[in-house]
Amino acid sequence: MSGNRLDGKIVIITGGASGIGAESVRLFTEHGARVVIVDVQDELGQNLAASIGGGKASYYHCDVTNETEVENAVKFTVHKHGKLDVLFSNAGVIEPFASILDLNLDELDRIFAVNLRGAAAFIKHAARAMVEKGTRGSIVCTTSVAAEISGTAPHGYTASKHGLLGLIKSASGGLGQYGIRVNGVAPFGVATPLVCNGFKIEANVVEENTLASANLKGIVLKARHVAEAALFLASDESAYVSGQNLAVDGGYSVVKP
């Protein structure tokens, strides 16, 4: 594959300071993109941008639950680079497992505020910028296998990702007239800080559990695999793909043990 699959593209990656987001920042810049890292983890984001160097990445502090900050992040990107080609809406949170009988509705509101409302805000303002500039852009959102099936994640997270997938499908219908594509990338269990800290579990345990559950054997799911799928959806190689949810799950969601 070409080493410049995003050559000249301007990209926003939310939740870009760590995990899947950070891997995507590295990969996208390797393929010629200039990336604005959006996160609330200031030190991690700034250090990541500095480590890439060459002006290929910059950091912008933004809480995705605050629409004004979301709008300003998009404005910052367009002012700095003149346009916006790709949004990778990757920011997310997860709650501990609990019975539906003990569902914490305040926690549910927080999960939806980040995973669904935050994505909606970024889709809204990124798409506005793309339409204004006449850009045939690509919007990619991190969903989950939990957006397709239940039982793999806590109730709030599962519900928010189901909602996000619905938003992706709806937005793809609304933005197609402008040449803007909207897709999801749906990973299985990846040993990211989100998962490890959220479930208080070691990375090797996450990887062992995923490997044991997935249909595809002999390979351990890494954040890089998800970033590579997002790269495909962000690039012109997927120019006629929209409204889809690309599973990166070793066949788990279709061939369950």
UniProtKB/TrEMBL annotation:
It comes from the Eukaryota. Coiled coil: none annotated. SUPFAM superfamilies: NAD(P)-binding Rossmann-fold domains (SSF51735). It holds the Pfam family adh_short_C2. Belongs to the short-chain dehydrogenases/reductases (SDR) family. PANTHER family: SHORT-CHAIN DEHYDROGENASE REDUCTASE, SHORT-CHAIN DEHYDROGENASE REDUCTASE 3B. This is Short-chain dehydrogenase reductase 3b-like. It comes from Camelina sativa (False flax). The lineage of its organism: Eukaryota, Viridiplantae, Streptophyta, Embryophyta, Tracheophyta.
